[in-house]
């Protein structure tokens, strides 16, 4: 093994000059004015060689027109490197589609009452587009109210899409389209009724937990629903059965839009991604549907004995004004609704108003989705406290898996 080499300090010789160790300074090239002017663009982009850069910068010190041109080019290059996020504006897709539709309206337009479902399924599909396997298997907790208590069900992002596929199938069957649970029935599963039962049957009979492959059938089914209602063009279609009750086609499409938005927020929360509420005009329709369903929910609470008014209800004939609660929804999607308290067929009356509740629009929807406890929902309350409590709990009771 050779011995270590002696250090240069041990030789007794003078140390080399540090300036001699670096790269030699570039020598400017001897170039004509026209050639140097043609290099200004490359110089502004830092694309010249060291010698060319030295020649251009030496020339700029004595040529005023070239110096001004070089300054303009450097400022232009600065505009090409704006420190902006690479994420696209979430509203870009909507603006592009709206611009296209303004120039050429669709041959068969989507009915106004189906537009919320069309918009919310498109927004959710855009959210899912770039998900990898890790995101599809991210845990999600579905939340709703059963009775007067909060409950939940653990699943994954893929399981949520399977849930939407199963329940949207109720509308598909009513419209004469294929049932996504047809294979479940063929496997001998007992008759499945209601959103929760269909979802549990789908999960139970799947060979494997749902994966990203569920996006394709859900996406195709949502497109088929929109195409079908657009071709028929009328909301007077068949009623959609939900097990214990049925909804008109118009309301069923709104219900599916509402649930699509709620579960899209569940998914976005699971993958830590921001998600905006629906457009105000669509959110207003969803709020209106929930407000119209409240009298039936109040009657159901009385029937089950969970209402303080169950022992001595103030029942009034259908079509007759009765005691009412004024529901005021604040925000751009807001409005006011008079909720009859005595029976589903009663008419809301300002003269018989006994209470007034004010809530934000998104807060009310989260209450109706079972994501906000009734005790924490109301921003403002005036009047009969018992009536207010019953309406808030009835709103939470609208939620389901």
UniProtKB/TrEMBL annotation:
Sequence ranges assigned to domain Mycothiol-dependent maleylpyruvate isomerase metal-binding in this UniProt record: 118-268
Keyword Transcription: yes
GO terms assigned for molecular function: metal ion binding
Keywords assigned: Transcription, Transcription regulation
Claim: Transcription regulation is one of the keywords in the record: yes
The Putative zinc-finger domain, residue ranges: 38-67
Gene3D superfamilies attached to this UniProt entry: Anti-sigma factor, zinc-finger domain, dinb family like domain
Domain of life: Bacteria
Name used for this protein in its record: MDMPI N domain containing protein
Organism listed in the record: Streptomyces bungoensis
């Amino acid at each position: 093994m050779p011995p270590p080499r002696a250090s240069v300090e041990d030789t007794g010789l003078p140390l080399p000059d540090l300036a001699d160790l670096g790269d030699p300074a570039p020598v400017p090239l001897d170039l004509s004015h026209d050639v140097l002017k043609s290099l200004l663009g490359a110089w502004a982009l830092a694309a010249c060689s060291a010698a060319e850069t030295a020649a251009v910068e030496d020339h700029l010190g004595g040529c005023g027109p070239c110096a001004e041109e070089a300054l303009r080019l450097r400022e232009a290059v600065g505009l090409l490197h704006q420190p902006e996020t690479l994420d696209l504006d979430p509203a870009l897709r909507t603006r592009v589609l709206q611009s296209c539709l303004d120039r050429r309206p669709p041959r068969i337009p989507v009915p106004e009452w189906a537009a919320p479902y069309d918009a919310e399924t498109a927004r959710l599909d855009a959210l899912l587009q770039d998900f990898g396997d890790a995101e599809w298997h991210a845990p999600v907790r579905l939340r709703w109210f059963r009775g007067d208590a909060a409950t939940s069900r653990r699943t994954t992002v893929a399981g949520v899409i399977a849930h939407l596929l199963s329940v949207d199938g109720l509308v598909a069957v009513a419209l004469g389209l294929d049932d996504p649970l047809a294979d479940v029935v063929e496997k001998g599963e007992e008759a499945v009724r209601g959103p929760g039962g269909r979802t549990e049957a789908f999960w139970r009979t799947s060979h494997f937990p749902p994966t990203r492959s569920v996006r394709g059938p859900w996406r195709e089914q949502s497109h088929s629903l929109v195409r079908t209602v657009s071709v028929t063009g009328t909301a007077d279609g068949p009623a959609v059965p939900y097990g214990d009750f049925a909804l008109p086609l118009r309301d069923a499409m709104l219900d599916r839009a509402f649930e699509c938005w709620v579960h899209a927020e569940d998914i976005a929360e699971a993958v830590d991604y921001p998600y905006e509420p629906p457009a105000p005009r669509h959110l207003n329709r969803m709020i209106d549907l929930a407000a119209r369903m409240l009298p039936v929910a109040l009657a159901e609470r009385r029937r089950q004995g969970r209402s303080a008014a169950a022992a001595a209800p103030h029942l009034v004939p259908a079509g007759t004004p009765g005691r009412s609660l004024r529901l005021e929804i604040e925000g751009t999607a807001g409005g006011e609704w008079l909720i009859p308290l005595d029976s589903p067929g009663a008419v809301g009356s300002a003269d018989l108003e006994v209470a007034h509740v004010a809530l934000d629009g998104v807060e009310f929807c989260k209450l109706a989705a079972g994501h906000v406890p009734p005790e924490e929902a109301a921003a403002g309350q005036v009047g009969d406290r018992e009536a207010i409590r019953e309406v808030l709990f009835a709103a939470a009771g609208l939620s389901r898996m």
